[in-house]
Design a protein that fits this description.
Length: 157
């Protein structure tokens, strides 16, 4: 024990000295990483484009479809976006109608994020987001009705 100090204080000083060596090494790396957040949209878009050329690359399976067998509103949207990014628009629309729209949105987001050096370079308005969510929900319901019934749903016949 150090003279003039209680045992608890000496123990705290030992713990602090053991933790300090990591901080000087992490701070510059975290500062550099923090300044590169605007490149994330371009990295995501690039990964999806590469996934369009190499579909065996890893991705996230749909938990709803794995549990219930029913596809969620965004099932096949990753594949559709990947196909749209490599120019296969017909196959993209066949997989999910929102695929080309999402691909275009990702490209715009990537360019704006890099130009403005901000991860989120534009303001979101509530109405367009709600309208897009409703359109996605209606598209999903129509896909379910067509997939699980013979042709058109009963209420549309």
């Amino acid at each position: 024990m150090l003279p003039g100090r209680d045992p608890h204080q000496a123990q705290r000083l030992r713990r602090q000295s053991q933790r300090r060596p990591l901080r000087p090494h992490l701070k510059p790396w975290l500062r550099q990483l923090h300044g590169m957040g605007h490149l994330l949209p371009a990295a995501l878009t690039g990964y999806l484009a590469i996934k369009g050329l190499h579909p065996d690359l890893p991705g996230w399976p749909c938990p709803l479809q794995a549990l219930t067998g029913i596809p969620c509103p965004t099932c096949y949207l990753t594949r559709a976006t990947s196909q749209a990014l490599v120019g296969h628009l017909e196959q993209s629309i066949r997989l999910h109608a929102f695929g080309p729209l999402l691909a275009a949105g990702l490209l715009v987001w990537s360019v704006l994020a890099i130009r403005r050096r901000q991860l989120w370079p534009f303001a979101l308005r509530a109405r367009p987001v709600i309208a897009l969510a409703l359109a996605l929900l209606l598209y999903w319901l129509a896909r379910l009705a067509l997939q699980y019934s013979s042709g058109w749903p009963a209420f549309l016949r």
